[in-house]
Amino acid sequence: MIAVLQRVSEASVRVDGAVIGQIDAGLLVLLCAEKGDTEAVADKMLAKMLKLRIFSDEAGKMNRSVQDVGGGLLVVSQFTLAADVAGGNRPSFTQAAAPEDGRRLYEHFVAQARAAHPLVQTGQFAADMKVSLVNDGPITIPMRMGA
User: Rounded to two decimals, what is the model's pTM?
Assistant: First the structure.
């Protein structure tokens, strides 16, 4: 499973011009399931993400997690994180999970996030989404977890 975390002061996602998910300060999570990923991998990634200390403390050091600061999560599916550009000029997405597996793992991740964290918003799986954000820092953290 691949995720790109962006510490944001605000973020939103629109589908057909309507805002379907929005947070103030927190994490924008771009999430991609890969072939072979399981619910256990998703759970491990979520646990790490919620505890990752990338928010500033009083001294300005990255010493607090999204849970510590009460920030939101905006979780957006993005299969293109599995892109392989080694072969040519057109990316290959063969390592991305099949759509039904990707949806199942995305929905599992979101359900677990909602059970563990008070403010979770989402995009819409497989939709043409417009994501807006103000990256705070900028802080962008790539994550990859496997079985």
Answer: 0.96
- Which DSSP symbol is given to 97? P
pLDDT by residue (tens digit) across 37-75?
A: 999 999 999 999 999 999 999 999 999 999 999 999 999
Catalytic one of 22, 38, 55, 78:
78
> Is 109 known to be catalytic?
no
- Is 80 a known active-site residue? yes
Query: What is the number of H-type helices and E-type strands within the chain?
Result: 3, 8
Which one is catalytic: 6, 55, 79, 109? 79
Q: What is the CATH number of the domain that holds 38?
A: 3.50.80.10
The two beta strands, 72-77 and 26-32, are parallel
Q: Is 38 a catalytic residue?
A: no
The residue range of the domain holding 59 is 2-144
Q: How many domains does the chain have?
A: 1
Question: What pLDDT is attached to residue 146?
Answer: 84
